[in-house]
Protein 1
Amino acid sequence: MAEKSYFVHESSCIDDDVEIGEGTKIWHFCHIQRGARIGKRCSLGQNVNVSNHVRIGDGCKIQNNVSLYEGVELENDVFCGPSCVFTNDLTPRAKYPKGSAGYKRTLVKEGASIGANATVVCGHTVGKWALIGAGAVVASNVPDHALMLGVPAKQCGWVCECGQKLCPDHVAQFRCPDCGRTYQLKEEQLEEMK
């Protein structure tokens, strides 16, 4: 039998028809359900549930007690803080289950971070390198690099790819105080200046 190129703690349950990328680590009491696809070099903390057909890109870090329900897709290098929540049904009823045909898709783009205990309501996209603050409730699409805080979450600024809040430099330009990257605002979208 070939040695696995990833680690799964003995307390975790991995269903059939699951793909797990090289270098990924799945820790205590996780459940990875049928059809899930997990990329390379990911880390899944204790008590993570990855539901049927969920897609997780390379380099993602999913902290303890996160459930990724069917319909959720994480692109590369996404961070999910402890106990953050994803939904997949806008109008759930125990008596009237819709099944997977009624689930709404949620996409979290490359490099985005979801803070501890934040909730992402299904049917929305969280943009690249966006930062969702702890406890926020995302109920609309989030632009790339947006800093979102509160209930419901509202944009409170812009963040750099490195995660720091950007400082205004000129009318439509922003600079990172840590790494020095500069960005320009064009048609309400933040773009890195090369």
Protein 2
Amino acid sequence: MKRLMISAAMLSFLAAPALSADYAPRAGSVIAFDVMRGESPMGTHTITFERDGDRLVATTDIDLRVSFGPVTFFRYEHEAREIWVGDRLVSFTSETFKDGNDLDVAAEREGDQLTIDGMTYEEEEVSLTLPASLALSSHWRGYDPAASVIFNTETGQEMEVEIEQLGTETITVMGRQIEATRIRMAGSLTVDLWYGPDGEWVKCAFEARGETITYVRRDA
């Protein structure tokens, strides 16, 4: 297991401002998207929530693929489990299949830090410690616009980002028009994200491999 040594000064540099998320999912809440590649269905992205008092478990399940007849040209699978107590992330685990690679992440909170066993995209194992205040790249909690680093849920490592607020606009979600706040997050990928009046994640769009990918909310 490769050990990444990060000094206290580096941790201070990496720490993002505290995340403030308005969205408070109830027990049994589900955020479900159909993922479209242009006009063609590509798969699904679903987050389910279990709650017991202040304890919240968020489970993400993503299944994307592009096929032509019996041949699959692209496949992406991601399963993750976040455990929160109030606004404190207690633990995180994920399994990802991406570009033919299998990635595993396990993180546990110790004080104000996360102790993490993760993997590079080349499937090289790494162990590291990062501030527990870093926002996860799972999107559903939103992002502090001042954040410059977030937690990559595929690898368990830090990911540099630039977040831009694009204002409020009217969009259609599940047949209803709502006012949504739009942000743009540029990192390994540039992603536009929309959040409803209560902070609930309602839409996503980005460009990948020359294709426009759009997340369309649907009833669970």
Protein 3
Amino acid sequence: MTSAQSADASQTPAAPDRSGDRCPACERPVNAVRPRPRQLPAEVCERPRHHIRNETRLVASLKSSQDRVADAVTAFAGSLTFVYIHALWFGLWIVANTGLFGPALVFDRYPYGLLTMLVSLEAIFLSTFVMVSQNRQAARNDLRSELDFETNVRGEIWSVHIGRRLGIDPLEIEAEVQRALTASRNRLHDTAVAGLEPEISPNDFRNTP
């Protein structure tokens, strides 16, 4: 065997040219067909879902069309645009009824009884809208407190389980927390009695004998 023949035999055979082949499923060239991703086991794909509820989404889902109208009116009444419109309105009303634009335009003479009635009606409706918004804000605060309580309970339970895994005694930690809270409350009580501003010392959160 010649050296040329031995060199040809040692070379690996070239891969077949499949550039002209097409996939039987999509009729695309084989080189353009992407391989399917490897399927992971079900236990790997599953992830623990969080149970924390979003307060903003909950409040938005509980809103009705009337609540949205009340919020829009209250937001507009609390803006400077509302103040500018009323200042212009009152100014033109008073100037027109003093006769500066001619006696033909005088329709509500001093003391402007019609203007007083309109402003009183507007104040009644605006106060009603404000109270509706305040009631909704109180309900939102209650919802926020409930969600905070659920989050605190969940965090405490997780902390206890993690502490047990780490070999920490939860009763000892709770006793230290109670001592720190008692010391902080006593300090606040003494400060309130003395009429001074409360001061929080780092020693309140240390393990006291």
Protein 4
Amino acid sequence: MSAVPPTAAAGESSSALSRRTFITTTTTAVAASGLVPGTSPLGVEPAAAAEVSPSGRVSLTVNGERHAAMIDNRTSLLDLLREQFGLTGTKKGCDAGACGACTVLVDGRRVNACLTLAVRLEGAKVTTIEGLAPGEGDDLHPLQEAFIEQDAFQCGYCTPGQIMSGIGCIREGHTGSPEEIREWMSGNICRCGCYVKIVKAVEQAAGGK
């Protein structure tokens, strides 16, 4: 005699048949509709259907030299400087505008290069850390000298952005007190914690401007 009650065996058989019928019917319907993984309803391959990113030409002056480039319209000024112009002094930190490591001057104003679309800078004048030296040789900008004299850095990764922001702060006239300097440079983060010496360096350069 079978150990399984006839009603249970029949129920299981009916259930199994129902599952098989459902799977077969569904698979047939999907195949008929053309919605097979890896294809589109129109029969166009995904790679072929992908949109081509828009590109444009931009001309700008960087550190006194004229540059022109064809770029993806989504390219940031930071990536343009580092990857196409080879100016790696401008650092990529958070890439979200929160740390200030990528600070440069655009038409004399400090900006976060990671948040600035390069295609919008047609005709602009950009200054990076590489363009600060007043002449040839080992000459340094007064703020660069002040950073050395005040020992205002440790790892140095944030230093280019700190210096560029400091120059902007001086030009904007926000150096009336240590508190004012800290306020107007608060967007530049130093993970080594050299803030006291950075403020002293900016004060020193501002006093000799």
